[in-house]
Amino acid sequence: ILLNRKSGSQVSSLRVPKEPQNKVTVVLGAQWGDEGKGKVVDLLAMDADIVCRCQGGNNAGHTVVVDSVEYDFHLLPSGVLNKKATSFIGNGVVIHLPGLFEEAEKNLQKGLQGWEERLKISDRAHIVFNFHQAVDGIQEQQRQQQEGKNLGTTKKGIGPAYSSKAARNGLRVCDLVGDITVFEDKFRLLAEHFQRMYQNLNINIENELEQLKGFAERLRPLVTDGVYFMHKALNGPSKKILVEGANAALLDIDFGTYPFVTSSNCTVGGVCTGLGVPPSHVGRVYGVVKAYTTRVGVGAFPTELNNETGDLLQSRGREFGVTTGRRRRCGWLDLILVRYAHMVNGFSAIALTKLDILDTLPEIKVGVAYKVNGKPLPSFPANMDVLTRVTVEYETLPGWCCSTEAVRSFEELPPQAQSYIRFIEDFLQVPVKWVGVGKSRESMIKLF
Ligand SMILES: *[C@@H]1O[C@H](CO)[C@@H](O)[C@H](O)[C@H]1NC(C)=O
Ligand SMILES: *[C@@H]1O[C@H](CO)[C@@H](O)[C@H](O)[C@H]1NC(C)=O
């Protein structure tokens, strides 16, 4: 059309700026993970047409409770519970196939139905092999021996798989469902590469290849050109598209507390690179913030509570990892950290989760500034040595000392709890849209 001089009107109509049609709604973790994103996603997924994952692998974990059945999701978008929605695993995700099918199987036994008809997988997504997982374990062991501390990875092979991706010898879904002999050759090369690097790594190449060939057949009908899939979804008839972030801002490979981070982009940019979506199609971005702070594994944690209050949060909040069962460290809400996550993500609104866990505390502190050697820091430091040395300035707010679990509206919340929420909004200059006071779907109070 552009080259045809006669159809001038069509050329000029192209030059009239068009409003992007459908936009994606994004849900992201705003702390160190485990904020309860699953619950917010589940809420929004109920009337979504498409629910997408754009990064990470089965190292993340979401629990969704529906009719008192607890579903655990690691790789499957939790929107897969919605029978009217299509679930999509984008190119930015790394997929461990045995893990994917095992997860589906476990949830099938709990009542999930027909997931294979509702799931699409990008042909550009990279594959996590069993040896990536073995290497993850060996690397953690080496770090423990050499530095006396490990990264606390989930040993799901996510880091090594993203390393292969960046090293340009990784294998993708399109390779597995393509010419299998070409795939076999590349697979052997990659396996041998890792075998040379790690002497005590045992890879049963033939076994794993056999297993993969079986998976290839089950996978084939689910595989799609992810870029084209998203393009059609964004430019076709009106659709509600949801992107569920995995991990969280402070675990982002670039913006997180490096090196104690995950290997993907858990901030908003990952939505574009992990799905092939233009930035102009990114709509609302919701940050999920737990009413206090938790962190798994090692690394600096300025507002950590190493006393009974920390233990109380840990036990009341049932702070154990969904993927690993590890006990999470607990501390006061750190708003310096959340504000930093907001600088990167530009949250439209916030979902404040697990407020009820604070129900028994007579007073609640909130971290509002960092100082090093008596000097205030303007923002969240990049250097972990600095983060270890900060002293936190707190605002002390009165607790409410009564149960909020049965509350279903903002007005019913005790005034002290309302003030706690308003304090967070004022500090961040972002509205709180939901407040979580329990595990069920109904316990997410909607403010507006
Ligand atoms: C994450 O973002 C960086 C840019 O900092 C990019 O180089 C990298 O490929 C991205 N990683 C993934 C896993 O998408
Ligand atoms: C734990 O330490 C914090 C320090 O920030 C304090 O506010 C809290 O009262 C302490 N809890 C107990 C039970 O001593």
From TrEMBL:
Top EC class, one word: ligase
Active site: D34 (proton acceptor), H62 (proton donor), K165
Pathway assigned in UniProt: Purine metabolism; AMP biosynthesis via de novo pathway; AMP from IMP: step 1/2
Subcellular location: Cytoplasm
Cofactor info, note text: Binds 1 Mg(2+) ion per subunit.
InterPro entries in the record: Adenylosuccin_syn_GTP-bd, Adenylosuccin_syn_Lys_AS, Adenylosuccinate_synth_dom1, Adenylosuccinate_synth_dom2, Adenylosuccinate_synth_dom3, Adenylosuccinate_synthetase, P-loop_NTPase
Residues that, per the record, bind GTP: 33-39, 61-63, 328, 354-356, 436-438
Record-listed substrate binding positions: V322, T323, T324, G325, R326, R327, R328
Record bears the keyword Magnesium: yes
CDD domains found in the cross-reference section: AdSS (cd03108)
Catalytic activity from the UniProt record: IMP + L-aspartate + GTP = N(6)-(1,2-dicarboxyethyl)-AMP + GDP + phosphate + 2 H(+)
GO cellular component: cytoplasm
Pfam family of the protein (one): Adenylsucc_synt
UniProt family annotation: Belongs to the adenylosuccinate synthetase family.
Quaternary context: Homodimer.
NCBIfam families: PRK01117.1, purA
Protein name according to UniProt: Adenylosuccinate synthetase
Organism, as annotated: Takifugu rubripes
Gene: adssl
